[in-house]
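Researcher: Quick sanity check before group meeting.
Model: Go ahead. Protein one:
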Amino acid sequence: MNNEMNKKYIEHMNFEQVDGNTLTIEQIENLMSKKGFVCPTRTTDLWISRKLSIIDVLGIPTVMESTSEYMILDSFGMSIWNDDATGIIEYVKGFIEG
């Protein structure tokens, strides 16, 4: 159920296409709720957003966005990296250069 809730939540987010080489820590740290970035690469797009978790609110499972941790998904919606903003930038740049 958690994966399905996350998937539905992500489907309603707004992603802005950016060049991974110019993406900054500040851009990631300033992500608003339900917003994200997509960085096209030669092999897959990297979808960056706040890290999601499922919490129980009065017995109802609810999606919560982290304010300090971020995640990268591949084009199939699989989580491939979770980290702080600096770690996300390092991963993206390493992925593009690799």
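Researcher: Fine. The other one?
Model: Protein two, sequence then structure:
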Amino acid sequence: MKTPVCLQGPAVRAAATHQSTGRPGGSLCCRRLALVWVLACGCLQGGDARPAAAVRGLGSDTVDLGTTPDLDQLRLSPTRDRQSRLLRAAMASPGALPARARHIEDRFRQAQDSPGALLRAAADLGAIPGVDRSWSAPAPMLPGGTDTLADALALLSVDTAGRGAGPPPAGATVPPDATLPEPLRGEIARMLLGIHAAEQLRRTALAGMPAALTPSALLGQFPDGSAVPTGIPAALDLRRLLSRLDRPALLQGMAVLAQAAARLSGHLQAAPALPRVYWRHETPLGTVLVDTTGTGSAHVLDSPLLVLDVGGDDRYTFEVRRDGNRIAVLIDHGGDDLYAAAGPGTDPSAGILGYGILWDSEGSDGYRGGSFAQGAAVFGAALHIDQAGRDRYTATAYAQGFAVAGWAVLRSSSDATRFDAVSQSQASAGPEGTAVLLDAGGDDRYTLSGTPLLFPSAQLPDRNVSLGQGAGRGQRPDASAGGVSTTGGTGLLLDAAGDDHYSAHVFAQGVGYHEGTGMLLDGGGHDTFEAAWYAMGAAAHNAAGLLVKRGDGDDRYAASHSAALGAAHDFSVAVFVDQGGDDYYRVGDFGIGAALDNSVAFFVDGRGADHYALGPGACRGFGYAALADPDPLRSTLAGAGFFVDRAGRDVYPRQCPARNGAAWTSPPEGDTAASAAARGIGHDCPDAHCGRGDAAARTRLSPIHPRLSRPGWLPHKCGGEITSAIFRHDKIHSSALCRSTRTIGFLASRHEY
């Protein structure tokens, strides 16, 4: 793609302007539009509209810019048929990403009390066009016998190959009606029928997998903190098996299971009284345990299939799960409970080649696990729901909302909650996975620890790679897998409210890596964000990262090293938005609206008196773009960094051009040695109004696809350079900027926050 005129050097831009207007420099196509406040970039070439990126404003409006990363990088990727719809949209229209995030946030908020709706929202979030077909979740039909519970158990009494139903195992007993009466008896039967239906769909979904691919063989392919797996047989390599998974069938099975679990949980919570029952039953698929005695129990479970406990402060210990135990549902109603997973994947909310649901409706609970726990899915689906209480989650890795080739949702309560892990947790999505951590409110703490050092990062070997708190990653071509690469997943951490604390190290807090998409959306409060490298709206290698902080909270953002706060590298997109408050920002080097190697990065801060700090040395931020190693190809492709601060008396580092009430470019105007492919722009708006626009000019432009080229996309046709404008809602400040060739232009659209 040829570099747009407006992103080339000053001499080229001036020549283009002179050619189209007959005047050297000057303002061009500067329109007074009643749109959102934003500093935007657009460009025309030869009279054609060639917008190359998009940026969003604040509040409820948006503006599209004209610079995207080179989309051919995605189109020519060997994983092009497996990329998520959200990734493609983010790369094609970066400025619309916060608007999409608003819709995503609204949908998950509305769905938070319905497991089925949460699952569908997660499925749509990470949908792969052409792969994820439509699906539904019909309710399982009750058998026509006189005892629905006995009939349901008979359906489950099948061998692991699924060769038909049979009688219950020898020695098994079905409680009489007097011991387990209706309606609870029928509700348990419906749950078991849902499990049976889900098992049939699970087998359909995994029919293309080799028989030797057991849960242990699959989990053995993940580093455990002590060694990186080697010698994985090609036939079992999960990277080669992604396309053989029937994703719609897998989703449908989980939807059936979630629907049945929701019905049973609803019955337990609504029933005025329940019979006191303790019943344990073994099936080929796992253990059925019903305990409604209301006493605190110590449950030691091997291969749980269905566990139902009502009342009491319980302690659960989950031991090794047999390979045949691919479905687990645990519903606990009442009590302050402790859940401990003894080994990887033993937690019932782990869906490894299957499904897992853990649902706790009351009490302040503790969850302890090593790896693959607390909402983890690998070639499967997982739901972990905690509806109330001050809870504590502790894990090592691959937990608290983790997914590869599947879907994992952890939904936490509105009370103060603490999440502790080391790596790849807290909304961490690997190849073709969708991982969501949804917290309904409260003053929460999210920690991805640097100790013990189990997963050293390439950037900082003395620190763990975090890859969490809203992270999506793929895998770049690896010689050990014959050059096989994978597209990335989609990770979303959504915290609705509260004064929260986020702490991580490398790759975290709304970060994307290699065709992955990561988002952290925080709904309000006075929050603290701490990390080291690639964090707080960052991305690398054809990826997208977003952090949106809503409300007027006084927030603190500190990245000790590099690539944070709207920082993109290597054909990537990174967006950071903070709507308001007196905020503190610090990054060691490179960030706060910085783009490297043909990327696009945006940093937008709303009202408030803010303090910005940057480490010593050159100023690589505040609307910065560059090429690390220019080559003939990259030098023909665009990259751009944008910085906007709306109002308030701010403090900027002395070595940077950023100043209150000023606009600037990077490289500075007149730098003829600067690369034509990398341009940055920044603006500090001196007040909340940014000027006013007249009512007669209140017009909206239709959205324009960033790759579309056609004349006349503005109210009148023009060529050459389009100068910049700054908008906020129906107010506009343009007089100074529209007369300056230091700025780059605008392209507006309808997208809404």
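Researcher: One line on it for the slide.
Model: The chain has ten helices and 50 strands.
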